[in-house]
Amino acid sequence: MSYLFELMSQRKQFSNGFCSFKQNMDDNSNRLLACARLLRADPDHFFSKKNPLLALDLFKVYEELSNNQQLLLLQVYAKIHNNFTSLLSNLQESPDPKMQLLGDELMLIKGNKGLLKKFSGTSNRLQIQLLYCFYTDQYENVLKLVESEDWEATPVNKLYFNLLFSDTQLQSDLLLLFIDLELLESHLFELFIVALNEKTVTEVVNKLSADDEHVKLIIRVMSLSGYTKFIPFLARYLQDEKYTLCAYHSLRILLGDKLDELIPSDIQFDSDQEKQKSNLAYYGAKMLHYWDSDFLKVFGPCILSGKNRTPLNILNIYKSASQAHRRVASINQIMVNVDDGLHYYAEAEAIL
Asked: What is the pTM for the complete model shown?
């Protein structure tokens, strides 16, 4: 059992790092599956029960784990028993709201069409179900829901529908809705940011700047947007010890390995965090010096991992870049035309 938790802890470290790649996650997944098959021999273990109803009764011992870890274990269970559909049905039909929500999140991660049998009236579940329909291109089913008596036109539901399924022109004023509805940390907000043009995302940043509590979010928005105009602002944040690590993460997202030409890699990946922060702050000033140099002129107006944000580059980054870059590339899929549709990619910790 301790080995299982050790593997999950390792996965958490891998999930959003710049030094971990898909191969690292795949190796971890294989070890998790091998461990689960050994634990299946224990008749009192969750993994031993092929019947999902019996298994979920034993799954309660994992209630204290994070949501990502619970989702991961459920996928491991379904994989070793080859019973995903049955597991999903039991989760979604469970009397426990937490289990229902896990079922919908599992459905979103799986991403196959035909997994949603009916829409739920609860707000949290409906948000996930609408995202699932967005990623599986089920506009007609959503339209039927909206036109039915079952649709509750709450501000949250309307925001999800308008952003995901309508041709609503994206305006910076929508930011106030995200703030009022406490959705600034949501996946919907990420999709909103990457869909904005340069003018509108700048307006969003300016509005967020009115509140000092939003500084870390502003830094993240700058990297999600991909616009190189924000690099000098991130360099300034790099010099503020309260935001050094956040700013570094955003700069690495934007510049990728190109950042090594400005900041030595041994400083970027120093295991001594205090020393790392101090050195990164010094290089923030140096980056500002380079802003007007030829170095940064090679980039286009919008980049990811040092490459222009084009459909082909986004797909290549998703396939082969670091886990941190793959996550951002997945959010940028909305500008990529692919034959088999979009693919939701949560934090890698949660996906087998």
From this structure: 0.91
